[in-house]
Amino acid sequence: MMATFFGEVVAPPSRAGDDDDDEEEEAAAALEREETPEDREIRQQLEKKREVHILWNPTSTASNNEQFPCSKFVLAVGHNAVAFLSSFVLNSGSWEVVGSLKLWNEWCRTSNTTKVLPTDSFCLFYRLISDPTVLLCQCNCYVAEDQQFQWLEKVFGCMQKTDLQVLVLSTCSVTEYKTTESTLTLPSPFLKALKTSTFEDKVCCSLLEQPNIARDLPAAVLSYCQVWQIPAVLYQCYTDIIKLDLVTIEAFEPLLSSRILKGLVKDISRNTEILRKVVTTNEIDNIYT
Description:
The protein is an alpha/beta fold. The protein has helices at 18-34, 37-49, 79-88, 145-156, 216-227, 246-250, 268-287; strands spanning 2-3, 9-10, 53-56, 68-69, 72-77, 95-102, 104-105, 108-109, 123-128, 131-139, 159-160, 165-173, 190-195, 232-239.
């Protein structure tokens, strides 16, 4: 996913010609012809193992295989974004866990419990009790490239897309930020925004400049929203500390004034105290593990 000058999502031009497509199809066909029954069985088992499963609670609307109304969908990807939502949003109101997403790949196996630490691998969905159309997802697991489409189809497939707004939070290394300046002089951590063409609200930081790109699940979500004309914005925090870090988490605080999060957060001073306890507890756990 590439940022335009205005920080909007665009599809990069394809350099591949028809000849390249034909060669790929021929190579795939040749591989299929050479595949033995044993190879086919192993491939099918691996594909089945890599399937993404979303499990909704029996009491939730989504468990009935019906699309439910959703006005706001907030997604946090990674340790620091998850910790930010936990401290400032989930602790500011009454939320209930309505589902979880299970997946396996070479880098991740999701936890089977809803009682998780900020560094565990999990993907949980919460619903605001006072307004069931507000859905929050904490995704603290790696979703491989071949699993992203499944994730999108199974999560967004449960939602009615009318009047839906999407907010995505993620972090990445400051070394990935492309600029004419030296990254050593950048005031890390810092936020950059990338939005779909239908997102009209004011963003809380400067827009992501070319030739910077978004990657992995956050990019997949934004691309999906662009195709379906869903107003969505990604706030990407560039940081020099990828592990759970108080300064990096606090870099997301300007988003508390955004239209999507405004009203979901009550006492910021109390939430900051909760955040510090989360980070301290995690540091203690790391010492004894």
